[in-house]
Request: fold
Amino acid sequence: METINYQNFRIEAENICVDYNGKVALYDANLRLKPGQICGLVGMNGAGKTTFFNALTGFVNISKGKIRINGESVRSAQKDQTIAYVPQNEGIDSQFPINVWDVVMMGRYGSMNIFRCPRESDVQAVKDAIERVDLTEHLSTPIGNLSGGQRKRTFLARAIAQRASILLLDEPFSGVDIRTEKLISELFIQFKNEGKTILLSTHDMIHVREFCDLVLLINKTVVAYGETSEVFTPENITTTFGGISPDFLFGPES
Amino acid sequence: MELCSFLTLDSFITDPLTHDFMRKALLMSSLVAAVCGFLSSYLTLKGWALMGDAVSHSVMPGVVVAYALGLPFSLGAFIFGVGSVALIGFIKQKSRVKEDTVIGLVFTGFFALGIVLVSKIKSNIDLHSILFGSPLGISLSDVKQTIFISLLVVILLLIFRKDLMLYCFDPRHAKTVGINVFFLHYLLLTCLSLAAVVGLQSVGIILVVAMLITPGATAYLLTDKFDNMTVISVLSAIISSLIGIYVSFWFDLETGGSIVLAQTFIFLFAFLFAPRYGIFKLKKLFAGYK
Reply:
């Protein structure tokens, strides 16, 4: 097992900017996360949440700023399988002819040889991961035949099999059943204890309060960032959502 | 062919095999079909049908120029095939015109350039055989080239089969775990251009896109496993080629058209009767009788 230095930053993003052909999607964004921290990424559609994820995984290039993952470049983080990305259900072609086992095995591809032949250890990692998300009965089920929650768990298993120390989750709770929601929240606690760092985007304010140590409110740039208890205030949320009050968005505060 | 009524199934199959050109046509077309069928699994899943159309048409001027300069025509086709895609990407990025419009615009432009070049460059290029294929009149050097390219594409696809599947399924994950997505993108494009080149020999430029789409679409209706999809796709492509060539031999029909029609009929059959995804869902029908 790797030893974890809880003082070092897992993710350091400094003043990052991303633009798509001149259209600015994100500017001057900062984020620092340590091992064992769970951070919620909150913002409207088009506020740059997915762009932020894409920048961290290296799927898009940043036009300005600096990103360090475990103190190293994004590219070496890719090589080391440091980051796992769990996509939104909508971001996946659910009709793709592939079953649960093969999806989870994809988590191991980065560390396999060029032919992607699974070794004993890969098979074991995949087995364990599928067991942890409680899908052992669905090993050979095509993903098109899974429920939304089961599909979400499949991709979570892929991240587990990858043995990544940073997990990026895009709307992990959208469109899932109660059972999956419970399982995911249990996994979050385990991940936290294992020293993994989690960044999740969500629309659901209750989940932020429940799981997130930190919260990052964005609207093309960082509106507020810090401990959930301090930063996650109605005023900040209103600013993030372009002046619409949280009451209107999420019902009256309890 | 006036003997048709006397034919037994046996002679239907064996008679054409007595002709050298038929043996060659059957072999070459099966090989080409296998290559295109293999690739078509990826193209249908990636949603690159229109791209296949674009590339296969855009290789036309490349083939003509290569002929004129005495270069292997695969080289010319490759340059123009990949070039057309690069141009599509460039125009899309720099203008407000929508992607499908850009694709249509670029490939027809290239195609037209090819036709104009053929009329200008006096050579032994037969426009008809480029447009509609000529599997029955394949020359020895064409045979060698077709075999070489086909093997190259098959080997590349076999080596990178899983990476390409991942690239089609979830490129973001591929990138995240350090797999070279840029390379895979161009690998797929390269294979597409090369397959278009070999495909144009048997069915011609206009119909080669069918070879690159239909077998994959047929297989997609029949299975939920990627590996099976590839196998079914290849098999249905080969069977269609054989049917097409035999039918065109006995009934004196255009060969390329017959091959593609055979593919279309197989697709329609799958569309109607595929166990799970067909409209009549055969599996359920049978289950009802139990």
About this structure: Residues 82 and 164 of chain A are 5 Å apart (CA to CA). The interface with chain B takes residues 21, 54, 57-59, 75, 78-81, 83-85, 87, 91-93, 96-99, 102, 106-107, 109-110, 114-116, 142, 144-145, 158, 162 of chain A (CB under 8 Å). Chain A has two domains: 7-82+166-249, 92-163. Chain A has ten helices and nine strands.
